Amino acid sequence: MTRIVAFETTDIRFPTSLSLDGSDAMNPDPDYSAAYLRIVTDAEDDLSGHSLVFTIGRGNDVQVAALGVLAARLVGRELEPLLDDMGAANRALIGDSQLRWLGPEKGVMHMAIGAVVNALWDLKAKQAGLPLWQLLARMSPEDLIGLVDFRYLTNSLTPEEALEILRTAEPGRADRERELLATGYPAYTTSPGWLGYSDDKLASLCREAIADGFGQIKLKVGADLEDDIRRLRIAREVCGPDFPIAIDANQRWEVAEAIAWVNALAPFQPAWIEEPTSPDDVLGHAEIARGVAPIRVATGEHAQNRVIFKQLLQARAIDVMQIDAVRVAGVNENIANLLLAAKYGIPVCPHAGGVGLCEAVQHLSMFDFVAVSGTREGRMIEYVDHLHEHFVVPTEVREGVYVAPLAPGAGMEMKAESRIAHEWEAARVAG
Amino acid sequence: MTRIVAFETTDIRFPTSLSLDGSDAMNPDPDYSAAYLRIVTDAEDDLSGHSLVFTIGRGNDVQVAALGVLAARLVGRELEPLLDDMGAANRALIGDSQLRWLGPEKGVMHMAIGAVVNALWDLKAKQAGLPLWQLLARMSPEDLIGLVDFRYLTNSLTPEEALEILRTAEPGRADRERELLATGYPAYTTSPGWLGYSDDKLASLCREAIADGFGQIKLKVGADLEDDIRRLRIAREVCGPDFPIAIDANQRWEVAEAIAWVNALAPFQPAWIEEPTSPDDVLGHAEIARGVAPIRVATGEHAQNRVIFKQLLQARAIDVMQIDAVRVAGVNENIANLLLAAKYGIPVCPHAGGVGLCEAVQHLSMFDFVAVSGTREGRMIEYVDHLHEHFVVPTEVREGVYVAPLAPGAGMEMKAESRIAHEWEAARVAG
Questions:
Q1: Which of A213, B108, B119, B352 sits at 20 to 30 Å (Cα–Cα) from B71?
Q2: CATH number of domain containing A347
Q3: Could you say which of A124, A285, A343, A351 is catalytic?
Q4: How far is A286 from chain B (nearest CA, A)?
Q5: pLDDT digits over B349-390, tens only?
Q6: Sign of dihedral through CA atoms B68, A105, B104, A348?
Q7: Among B23, B58, B255, B311, the residue to mutate for chain A (most A Cβ within 10 A)
Q8: A351 tagged catalytic
């Protein structure tokens, strides 16, 4: 019998605002940060479960406090019953009625629950000696269904329909796993596109992206239309007429403004418009989708839970669904999100970047390819070349594709020396 | 010149779970709690700004931590520029991009911002020597419009339309203020309806509610259909065939389940069905509204912000809108919510109870009557007779109506002795 004996949290912050990495129309000066979690057991295998919530600076301590409140739910508990039924573990955490009041199922408390779920998956995958994507992709359709909380989904996706999706994909799993190991998963890069970069830097980073083999780039837009036109023109000239260039407004616009602005950029043929308005505005996205077609609408990195994704799909408000590894309640809720996307035939192109998001979310896309949607067609994972050096198993992108990780775990374990070096000074002083 | 010199927070909890007060289908054992805030200045008037976020126990410390993070934005600042332009103060707090990442505009961080906004309003009203409702109801339509953040609203409500609503109500303000002072604002009571109460207690509390002059009662439902039928039958027998009895499922159901369950209760003529499903599910509420008509659908106590209310109204998903004083970003965002309801002609019947919610939200309904919707028709404020004794200006309900408060402030100041007596023990030990 193994017990959870410690639940360690760390407030980690990187001063990225100094270089304007990550700057966009809504987030001019992010300090990429992580509310970090490590679950420690008394097992002799010395394995621990790691995860994090990505934030952009101030408030990272609040996120750490939210993690801390969950420690009491776990420390002292037997590990096996939790890992043996991750569906029940997930539902128990989500279902705590007192904590639920703080959302429900959204924001700081929901992300904290997601981090605990993800840390347990990290531990489970390490115990199994498998990367998370492979662990999931080898579970039976029935066991996968048991992971999903279908509450509030059944008017759109029933457990029976979800099971059918997984069963349909089952026969091809082995072939697709081989294919994935041989050829990886497509990536696109946002590195050229931050608003704070100069035109020269933009142009040279576009050239670099193409030379590196990426199949798409993405540019931040939405602060100033003339600037956007100039920057898109530069990117289009460098990349050529057919290369996919997505644009991302980071929730900057009103609905009518989004439609007008995107149509003004239409001559540059954007591959999609991302986060045109509030992530809560399902009906607004639907209106925008109708107003900018055939340009596609993408969103999801700030979608708070599966109920929002359900509605975005029901309302035909998005053409591309962008899950995030740490915004929702972890792996379990993201499996629900992947199943919803599969039901509606919408491609999932995850949000990544930040701190550890590439490391984490690749597992979900690879699982999706092998065992859910069964395809990489029209799908790719965002890639930003920031901060990977701090991870024990850093993302490997070669010739524009994510190389499938083989190391056991869920990918978010940071190096001990990085955690120590980047622990927030105020937290160190206070602690 | 006055400066903010302190920002005090307190973790206050009441052990209400011991008596099953507040028990419902989703919240079996709430411990009513408050993340309490006091803003202190160096002015000689000795006035301070008080507010709170209501929670139901565990996690109240996370909410307190979120308040704490905002202290740095306020302590040391001049007070006058903040109070003189509460619209700008509100937008600056909401617009902090690093903190916004933790929502955006939802959950723990958003409620913390709301508490700061509300505490500033409390201070402003005390300085003016007016109760908040009167302070707001005497502002010009133009100044009121300046309080509202119209971001993400303009496809539904423009500043011009909102101004028109306020201008239309302006000529009748003085008459309605007199009327309000003379006759109060209608209340309904939820006291009989908690799930944990026995049938006898339910029946005697129904009798008491009618004797006390309330115009409506509300029963919790959703845990067990047979129980609901039995309890509704008892209530209907006691109250008679025409007395309004609302029912509240506290988010318990799937969409199809809600429609079937409510229709099974239709013979008892519920006045409305409240929170039938996830508060995030705009399209689900619209489906339910179509499926249970003519029974009305009500929701809003967990609506995270004005963008959700906007969509509930756009989709014709609700017949009754239930704002909450502390769920959204304070008085300013609730003015947006009132304006949205007025535009769509939907009555606002606020959520109350908890800790201090009656004390706070009555100001918004009274302001709405005097200066926004201009009517009390079909409107009432929830009332629960819990914990009022801890407030400096406790809610006064007489013969089923809220008596308009005349004491200066926004209503959420708790007595110092109550704050000390009910500070959470763990917090005291840790502190």
A1: B352
A2: 3.20.20.120
A3: A351
A4: 12
A5: 999 999 999 999 999 999 999 999 999 999 999 999 999 999
A6: positive
A7: B58
A8: yes
Rounded to whole angstroms, what are the CA distances from B144 to B85, B137, B336, B356?
11, 9, 10, 25
| In the predicted structure, residue B429 carries a pLDDT above the cut 70 | no
Cβ contacts (< 8 Å) between B97 and chain A: which residues?
Answer: 26-30, 56
Q: Residue B352 carries which side chain, given as an amino acid letter? A: A
Rounded to whole angstroms, the Cα distance separating A356 from A33 reads: 10
ipTM above 0.95, yes or no: yes
E strand or H helix that includes residue B248: strand B245-248
Alpha-carbon distances of A95 from A119, A201, B281, rounded to whole Å: 18, 48, 18
Count of residues in chain B:
431
End-to-end CA distance of chain B: 33
Q: Is pLDDT above 80 for B427?
A: no
Say which residues have a Cβ less than 8 Å from residue B121's Cβ, sequence separation at least 6. Answer: B49, B86, B132, B330, B331, B410
Q: How far apart are CA B202 and CA B217, in angstroms?
A: 11
Band of pLDDT at residue B27, cut at 50, 70 and 90: confident
* pLDDT, tens digit (0-9, with 9 covering 90-100), for A152-189: 999 999 999 999 999 999 999 999 999 999 999 999 99
How far from B326 is each of B110, B243, B275, B282, B353, CA to CA, in Å?
A: 9, 30, 17, 21, 12
**Domain presence at residue A141:** no
C-beta neighbour count of B262 within 10 angstroms: 23
Q: Is A256 within 8 Å of B155 when comparing Cβ atoms? A: yes
- Residue pair B329/B114 in contact (Cβ under 8 Å)? The answer is yes
Chain B residues lying within 8 Å of A66, measured CB to CB? 59, 62, 65, 108
* Tokens of residue A253, six digits: 């616009």
B431 pLDDT higher than 50: no
Comparing CA positions, the residue from B201, B242, B193 lying closest to residue B217 is B193
Residue B120 and residue B114: Cα distance in Å, rounded?
Answer: 10
How many angstroms separate the CA of residue A246 from the nearest CA in chain B? 22
Residue whose pair of structure tokens reads 């201009």 in the numeric block: B374
Which residues of chain B make contact with A158, given a CB cutoff of 8 A? none
d(CA B431, CA B427): 6
- For A2, the token pair is 């193994």
Which tokens is B14 given?
Answer: 């009441």
Contacts with A30 from chain B: Cβ below 8 Å: 97-98, 101
> Rounded to a whole number, what is the largest CA-CA distance in chain B?
64
Within a domain: A178: yes
Residue A149 inside a domain? The answer is no
CA closest to B288 among chain A residues: A155
How far is residue A397 from each of residues A186, A209, A247, A261, A358, measured CA to CA in Å?
A: 9, 12, 22, 33, 10
Chain A hits for B55, CB-CB cut-off 8 Å, are 98, 101-102
Interface mutation vs chain B, best among A20, A26, A106, most B CBs within 10 Å: A106
Query: What is the β-pairing status of strands A381-383 and A185-193?
Result: parallel
Report the predicted TM-score, pTM, of the whole model to 2 decimal places. Answer: 0.97
How would residue A431 be classed by pLDDT, with cut points 50, 70 and 90? very low
- The question of whether A50 is a catalytic residue gets the answer no
Q: Check residue A427 and give its pLDDT.
A: 61
CA angle (A364, A365, A368) in 5-degree steps:
85
DSSP conformational letter for B151: T
Nearest-CA neighbor of A404 among A396, A412, A413?
A: A396
CB A268 within 8 A of CB A232: yes
Q: What whole-number percentage of chain B has pLDDT above 90?
A: 92
Task: Check if the beta carbon of residue A281 is closer than 8 Å to that of residue A250.
Answer: no
pLDDT at A89: 97
Residue B159 domain-assigned (yes or no): no
Which region holds residue A86: left if phi is over 0, alpha if psi is between -120 and 50, else beta?
alpha
Full domain range(s) for residue B206: 170-417
Across the interface, whether the CB atoms of B280 and A305 are under 8 A apart is answered yes
Asked if the model's pLDDT at residue B395 lies above 70, the reply is yes
